[in-house]
Write a structure and sequence with these properties.
- The structure is a single chain.
- The protein is of the alpha+beta class and about 180 residues long.
- It has one domain (about 10-155): Roll (Thiol Ester Dehydrase, Chain A), CATH 3.10.129.
- The protein is built from three helices and six strands.
- The chain has helices at about 30-40, 50-55, 70-85; strands at about 20, 25-30, 90-100, 105-120, 125-135, 140-155.
- Strands 1, 2, 3, 4, 5 and 6 form a six-stranded antiparallel β-sheet that branches.
- The mean pLDDT is about 95.
Length: about 180
């Protein structure tokens, strides 16, 4: 019997410059998602929650547009499993571009490319991963993109590993 240990994400040692990661999850944005995020962030632009007012917006074709903060947060979240699940720090974001509107009912996907790797000069056992991430809607339109750098441990540090508790009753076995 093989035990597949609890482990998610990549460590610095796993990244290769030029590798593209098509992140596995997609997420459809509901009206509740958009409204809650808008209210949570105190964004008072009614184009995010007032259908009547949104009808006068020439950019959106009269539809409610999803709060761009939600778009960025969602694409970031979709990328975490591959790019920063084990990161210990976000170090910087650059060149965020919102290139296509997002509407209620759109399904969002994300992909990233590793563009640079370097050893941390201040923290032995860690490295800096730089990536470009972009979000796509269900039609393949690029909706947002950015460059981001994160600090990620190497496997040798043990960080993010062997955290699953050992059962007091012993290993799991077939009944």
């Amino acid at each position: 019997m093989t035990v597949h240990k609890a482990e998610l994400g990549r460590f610095f040692d796993d990244f290769v410059v030029g590798d593209v990661y098509q992140h596995p999850f997609g997420r459809t944005i509901s009206e509740a998602d958009s409204t809650w995020f808008t209210q949570l962030t105190c964004n008072t632009n009614q184009n995010h929650f007032n259908a009547h007012l949104a009808q006068s917006n020439p950019i959106t074709g009269g539809r409610i547009i999803v709060n761009s903060g939600l778009t960025v947060a969602l694409v970031l979240g979709l990328s975490v499993i591959d790019m920063s699940q084990n990161a210990v720090a976000n170090l910087g974001w650059d060149a965020i571009k919102l290139t296509h509107p997002v509407y209620i009912g759109d399904t969002i996907y994300a992909e990233s490319i590793c563009t640079d790797l370097r050893e941390s000069s201040s923290r032995p056992g860690f490295g800096i991963v730089t990536m470009i991430t972009r979000g796509l809607n269900q039609d393949g339109d690029v909706i947002v993109s950015w460059t981001r750098s994160v600090m990620v441990p190497k496997r040798e540090t043990g960080i993010g590993q062997d955290y699953f508790p050992e059962a007091k009753t012993g290993p799991l076995t077939p009944a």
